[in-house]
């Protein structure tokens, strides 16, 4: 997809009419936070955005920032002390919960206990679940294990 379109619609139609257009499109297109099929059965996102259109880089960046923030909130619910860890260990845990989601991350009971015990070698070992390795590959798991171990 090309870079973001550079056009100031408010300079063309004015702020009042831009707000009206926004309201109209939200009303007629509908607003959904998940993928849906439009009236022609095309996969669609948000407010009439065809999935085939893809996303602009700035939209991807915004979604990633929001998802990283959600990962931090999810981690708050799993490991209370994570914010006091070294930045490398914080990154490791955020990377892991971002990928797994809070439910699957919660299944790493032995790793979480090792972290609670500040046994970083054991935490590093326990993060390397064969099932997770088969899903994301050795590179990611080895990287996270190293960050946990070496801090």
Characterise the protein shown here.
By secondary structure, the protein is mostly helical. It has two domains: 45 residues, no CATH class; 94 residues, Lysozyme. The protein is 63% helix and 8% strand. The chain contains eight helices and three strands; from the N terminus they run H-H-E-E-E-H-H-H-H-H-H. A three-stranded antiparallel beta sheet has the order 1-2-3, with no helix packed on it. The mean pLDDT is 94.
Q: Give the class from helix and strand content and strand pairing.
A: mainly alpha
Main sheet strand line-up: 1-2-3
CATH class value of the largest domain: Mainly Alpha
- Number of DSSP helical runs: 8
The total strand number stands at 3
What is the CATH architecture descriptor of the largest domain?
Orthogonal Bundle
Largest sheet: 3 strands, antiparallel
Query: How would you name the oligomeric state of the polypeptide chains in this document?
Result: single chain
Enter the CATH topology name of the largest domain.
Answer: Lysozyme
Order of helices and strands: HHEEEHHHHHH
Dominant shape: elongated
Q: Beta-strand level of the residues, as a percent range? A: 5-15%
Number of domains: 2
* Helical fraction: 55-70%
Q: Low-confidence parts, pLDDT < 50 over ≥5 residues?
A: none
Calculate the mean pLDDT score and round it. 94
- Rg value: 21 Å
What is the CA-CA span between the terminal residues?
38 Å
Task: Annotate the secondary structure layout.
Elements: H1 9-13, H2 15-29, E1 32-37, E2 43-46, E3 49-50, H3 57-76, H4 87-106, H5 109-116, H6 120-126, H7 130-136, H8 138-150
Antiparallel strand pairs: 1-2, 2-3
Helix pairs in contact: 3-4, 4-8, 5-6, 6-8, 7-8
């Amino acid at each position: 997809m090309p870079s973001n379109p550079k056009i100031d619609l408010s300079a063309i139609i004015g702020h009042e009419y831009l707000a009206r257009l926004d309201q109209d499109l939200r009303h007629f297109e509908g607003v959904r936070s998940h993928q849906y099929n439009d009236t022609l059965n095309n996969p669609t996102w948000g407010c009439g955005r065809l999935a085939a259109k893809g996303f602009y880089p700035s939209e991807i960046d915004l979604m990633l920032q929001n998802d990283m923030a959600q990962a931090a909130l999810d981690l708050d619910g799993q490991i209370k002390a994570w914010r006091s860890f070294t930045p490398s260990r914080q990154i490791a845990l955020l990377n892991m919960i971002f990928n797994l989601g809070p439910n699957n991350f919660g299944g790493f009971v032995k790793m979480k206990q090792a972290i609670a015990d500040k046994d970083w070698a054991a935490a590093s070992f326990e993060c390397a679940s064969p099932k997770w390795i088969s899903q994301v590959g050795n590179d990611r798991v080895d990287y996270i294990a190293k960050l946990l171990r070496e801090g």
